[in-house]
Amino acid sequence: MKQPKERHLIPSEGEALVAHNLKVMRKAARLSQDDVAERMRRLGFKFHQTQVAKIENGTRAIQFDEVIGLAKALNLPAEYFMTQAVANPDDPHYELQEAGFRLQDLEKEWRAAQDLADAAKGRLEEAEREYDEIAERLGVDVTPSGDALTFYPAPNSPGDPLRKDAGPSASE
């Protein structure tokens, strides 16, 4: 299968993503940077408006516990800050960004499906090797004839070459 193309979407992961999302969600909640700083102080953080501004501008690093605090201060799940960019509908690239995030999600889904398929193929090949080893050890010929698909008989069924009949049946 063909590998998906690499794409670089903005904002990038990490602190830039948190900064972008903080700014968009703060404005959506109609809160000032002072309001967010005050809420953070009530949660026990030593925050000032300038720190909020620096985080939003990407000039101040942000700690994980601060991200959790900002989520609480804005009454939002923390994942909203860290999973993907919150798009601003006024942004001219909004539609492209949304399509890019859908594309990223589907590429992750494709990779997960590919990993599952690869794992299943490995288990199937191992089971086939085991079957062949047991048949060889018991001296049973299970070589497929021609290009026909090979169907292994159910264990202990009449077509099972490994079946040992108990002798003539009681009805004979």
UniProtKB/TrEMBL annotation:
Q: Which domain of life is it from?
A: Bacteria
PROSITE patterns per record: HTH_CROC1
InterPro entries registered for this protein in UniProt:
Cro/C1-type_HTH (IPR001387), Lambda_DNA-bd_dom_sf (IPR010982)
Q: Which UniProt keywords apply?
A: Coiled coil
Q: Which residues form the HTH cro/C1-type domain?
A: 22-81
Q: Which terms does the record give in the GO molecular function aspect? A: DNA binding
Q: Does the keyword Protein transport apply?
A: no
Q: Which residues cross the membrane?
A: none
Could you tell me what this protein is called?
HTH cro/C1-type domain-containing protein
